[in-house]
Design a protein that fits this description.
Distance between the termini: 20 Å
Helix content: 25-40%
Shape: globular
Order of helices and strands: HHHEEEEEHEE
Radius of gyration: 16 Å
Number of strands: 7
Number of domains: 1
Oligomer: single chain
CATH architecture: Alpha-Beta Complex
CATH topology: tt1808, chain A
Largest sheet: 5 strands, mixed
Strand order of the largest sheet: 1-4-5-6-7
CATH class: Alpha Beta
Structural class: alpha+beta
């Protein structure tokens, strides 16, 4: 099934639902200080993205997206490192929805930032380059997500 058969709106809705579940079920990962005022009161970004990925995987399992792979920090482009013009040493997106072994079915790229490290400038550059229609990867949809202490902010790229 081609990406054109999928609704961008439905992908966005699945991401939103997974984020809501993350905040409902695992806020402890994002802020685990009783008063929420310590800079060192959280789990690593990777740990949070992993948990988010579990929720997103559960949601896509019963949709046409189930035929795709959901990967965290996937750094391969077939048999080589993922490379971008602005990331000469290689790069690995926080979370992608794609089919491994090909660049013909790259659906979604997500980059996460957290309240203690919320500068998403490089992430936005990375997303734009991964989505470049003249580039290697040509992801169809991307988002930069900032996980704040009580809520999240999504900037969509499509």
């Amino acid at each position: 099934m081609a990406f054109e058969d999928y609704s961008v709106v439905s992908i966005k809705a699945l991401v939103e639902q997974a984020l809501q579940k993350l905040y409902e079920q695992d806020l402890y990962l994002i802020v685990n200080h009783p008063r929420g005022n310590s800079q060192d009161c959280h789990v690593s970004e990777r740990g949070i993205v992993f948990r988010f990925g579990i929720y997103l995987q559960e949601l896509i399992a019963t949709t046409p997206f189930s035929e795709f792979n959901l990967d965290v920090e996937y750094n391969r482009n077939m048999y080589e490192k993922k490379m971008l013009p602005s990331f000469a040493n290689g790069t690995f997106p926080d979370l992608i929805l794609h089919k491994r072994g090909s660049n013909d079915h790259n659906v979604l790229i997500l980059e996460f930032k957290t309240w203690w490290n919320s500068n998403a400038t490089d992430d936005k550059k990375k997303i734009t380059q991964f989505m470049d229609i003249d580039g290697i990867y040509r992801y169809k949809l991307g988002a930069s997500i900032v996980l704040n202490q009580k809520d999240y902010v999504i900037a969509w790229f499509d």
